[in-house]
Amino acid sequence: MGTRKVIGLWGGIGSGKTTVCSALEGQPFRVDVINADQLGHAAYAPGEAAVDEIAAAFGSEVRAEDGGINRRALGALVFGSEAKMKTLTDIVWPIIKQKARQRIDELKASPLQSDQGQLIILEAAVLLEASWDELVDEVWVTMVDEAIAKERIMKRNKLDEDAATKRLSSQMSNEERLAKLKELHSLPHVVIWTNRELSSVENDVLSLARKTLNLTLD
């Protein structure tokens, strides 16, 4: 019987989280990715518990025509305001955590399907900030030089340099992330630098996955 592990994939915008997930595709072991951003978007849907709380906190103008939350209108209100952003995250982060826990439990309850094991990846830019690391067995952190991250998001998101700089400045720096890692204490963690050749990153990710699942390295 193979090993089953839950990995918290933590990293800022443009740091290479998608690259790590892509490197794990098509392997003999099973890989399931839970994207925290998608869970967050689901929390804004009509009928979700967060909708009324968010509307009460920020006003009816953030409601969408379908009864959910207009994410663009909400973003315009909270972006650039630390206090408003905290109000929003205090509402949404616990709900996302609950959804992630439920999905992890569902995956753990499903048949393993591979004697090579299974990785359940919780991909989240705010994994540690939101205390979602409580849900995982170990943490993989993607990092990249800020200049490279800026180039990536300018190209991918079609942003000008000023907009890309603002996006980057709204999140933790590499130094802050490394300091935050020290708070994990006994939780295993590893840093994956992605400012290298793609093949080098992919090889390291696969080696890390095999080690995590106690598989023989080729």
TrEMBL record:
The keyword Transmembrane does not apply. The keyword Nucleus does not apply. CDD domains: DPCK. It holds the Pfam family CoaE. Signal peptide: none annotated. Keywords: ATP-binding, Nucleotide-binding. GO terms for biological process: coenzyme A biosynthetic process. Transmembrane segments: none annotated. InterPro entries: Depp_CoAkinase, P-loop_NTPase. One of its GO terms (molecular function) is ATP binding. This is Dephospho-CoA kinase.
